[in-house]
Amino acid sequence: MNSKEYIAYKCLNCNRSFILLASEVKHDEKEGKYITCPRHGKHRKIIVTGAYDSLKECMGERSYKRDKGKMKQIK
Q1: Does residue 47 register a pLDDT over 70?
Q2: Cα 2 to the chain's mean position, in Å?
Q3: Whole-prediction pTM
């Protein structure tokens, strides 16, 4: 994890990506909790795709567009 602020994950079942705070992940690991897909709570096949210092680094690899106040991934 190398003390990065954000960790990017990918669900292998539904093929969706999501980003979590590294501090939240460490806290949940200490409590014995596990990470699931935020879209479908049953999916536990999750892989780490990257660790970043800022959200701009995470979002720089893909194209995003604002839609009614929400960020949508285009590419």
Answers
A1: yes
A2: 16
A3: 0.70
